[in-house]
Amino acid sequence: FGNSWIYPFLITLLYIIILIQIFSNKASKVTLLAEMLLTQAGFIWSSVQKYDFYFGGTDILPHQFMATVTYLSGHVIPPEFRGYADFPLYHIFLAECSHVLGLDIETIIFSVTWPISVISVIFVYYIFLRTVRNKQIALLTSLIYSMSAVGLTHSIYMIPRSLAFAGFLMLLYFMTSSNRFKNPYAKSILVALIGVFIVLVHQVSILLIIALLCLLIVCEWFVSHERYVTDLSFIFIVVMSVGYWMYVAFSFARSTFTS
Question: Are 165 and 154 in contact (CB under 8 A)?
Fold first, then answer.
């Protein structure tokens, strides 16, 4: 549609239709979530194609370079690349996708990473469904998240902190689904794996996530209804993060806290 207003109008119309279906209670949750995912995916993919690999900030350029170094060398980036030498998971992911799919790093960044953010809408739905126990509110929250400017921008512009946020949503999802695990240790193992993922994908996101979990624990004390953040999961995340920063990424931690 070129630069016309028709395409934004159609996207807005689709979201309005989904909103009407949510309040009508006639469509199933599977249908509504599928509509949200497809609408968001269509907007993201059309934006990427229209603006020729649009990126919302300059952060993507060094990440593209570090992923290329990882791809060409077959190893994580050397310590000279301060900041991400000890947090290489994002660049390893891009390099592996480039090897497997036979595409260049730039195409991988804008064509493979954004579906991770789109799928996170499902996690948002189940997080709110299990906390507020109202399907309509959960669907409405998922719709707001899928059409928010921040969510759309970071889906198009997937950098390590965006990937860490998707990991945070997965972390909350498993924390709020304790009753669905027959094995009492299954939840702790999944939370531990996601915690490792968040630590390795971005430098400081885990610190902010720990702060949010502390706030959630305080809220649980006031509400006194149901505890989602177990002591074992929280202690493991804290100990793992501090241990990794102190014993593996000590140079980065020292430069961060002394600067």
Answer: yes
